[in-house]
């Protein structure tokens, strides 16, 4: 649990830094998938919505960050 907590905190800080946003979002995606799965396996259905909403928001951040990276790379290729 301490390792997961530390990873969550580091990933939360990583989301604030543009350079590490994609990695942090990827790590959080796996953690949140595990949280949703754990709640479903142990029939804690009332606890599922919170990590599920965070998972969806996190996937959105990941997709936007990947799209921005793709645009930056295409601009660099055009300028070169």
Q: Can you summarize this structure?
A:
The protein is mainly alpha-helical and 80 residues long. It is 84% helix and 0% strand.
Provide the residue-averaged pLDDT.
94
Number of domains: 1
SSE string: HHH
How many β-strands, per DSSP?
A: 0
Strand content: under 5%
Main beta-sheet annotation: none
In percent, how helical is the residue content? over 70%
Radius of gyration: 15 Å
Helix and strand composition category: mainly alpha
Low-confidence stretches: none
How many helices? The count is 3
In whole angstroms, the N-to-C terminal distance is: 47 Å
Shape: elongated
Transmembrane segments: 21-42, 48-66
Keywords: Membrane, Transmembrane, Transmembrane helix
Pfam families: DoxX_2
Subcellular location: Membrane
Structure description:
There is one protein chain. By secondary structure, this protein is mostly helical. The chain has one domain. Helix content is about 85%, strand content about 0%. The protein is elongated and about 55 Å long.
Please name the defining characteristics of this protein.
80 residues, mainly alpha, transmembrane, transmembrane helix, membrane, DoxX family protein, DoxX
């Amino acid at each position: 649990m301490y390792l997961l907590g530390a990873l969550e905190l580091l990933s939360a800080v990583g989301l604030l830094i543009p350079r590490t946003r994609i990695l942090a979002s990827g790590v959080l995606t796996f953690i949140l998938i595990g949280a949703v799965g754990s709640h479903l396996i142990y029939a804690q259905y009332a606890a599922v919505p919170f990590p599920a909403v965070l998972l969806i928001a996190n996937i959105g951040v990941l997709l936007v960050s990947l799209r921005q990276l793709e645009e930056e790379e295409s601009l660099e290729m055009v300028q070169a």
